[in-house]
Amino acid sequence: MDLPLCTVAGFLKTSAGPIIGIFHNYAYIEEGDTVHSVNQMRAHGIYVDDCPSKLGGKQYIATAEGFTIPLIICKGLAHMELCPPTDAEMTMYPHVTFTSEQLLNPQDHDYVYKIFEFKALMRVQGYPEMPRSTDMILARRIRNAVLVAQRLVIFDDDSDDGMEPCVETSDV
Fold it and tell me: 3-state class of 14 per DSSP?
């Protein structure tokens, strides 16, 4: 389906006050939510951290002008709270461009690492090596046991029938 492209404006609340976000080359859809391409914004110099805070992310967008916009995570997807600006808001608040007027070719950013490049990058940037699968399983079991301990009884795997509680806890 070929959709026409357009430039749209949206009223946004930021840490430094309201702004008007300008979004070039957006698919024109008369109804429904707008889908933002994080790579289209990143290619224009916008910092996007769309990782949920519950997974260690910051869930916000930062512009080169110093505005930060909080993201809402709902059903696993990041959303930016914006609405159509009024004529008064269009003249009252600063305009901040989030995407380039130049058409983005998404394939310009395609890349496949060669494994030796990826390993070198991981070492240079100080990332830990991926744990072996057994380590990952053990870490997941420990994390789950901690979460479950807040509400349930943890069972001792070494007991005869495997069903005797070794620790009883109550709700925190």
Answer: strand
Write out the residue range of the structural domain in which residue 33 sits.
5-102
Segment 73-99, tens digit of pLDDT: 888 888 888 899 999 999 999 999 998
> In this structure, what token pair is assigned to residue 3?
């959709």
Burial class (CB in 10 A: 0-12, 13-18, 19+), 93: middle
Please report, for residues 75, 125, 127, the alpha-carbon distance to residue 120 in angstroms, rounded to integers and kept in the order given. Answer: 35, 9, 10
pTM over 0.70: no
- Structural domain count, the chain: 2
> Is 140 inside any structural domain?
yes
Are both 17 and 59 inside the same structural domain? yes
| 89 lies in some domain | yes
Q: How confident is the model over 5-43, as pLDDT tens digits?
A: 888 899 999 999 999 999 898 777 777 667 778 888 888
117 lies in a domain?
Answer: no
Query: N- to C-terminal Cα distance for the chain?
Result: 52
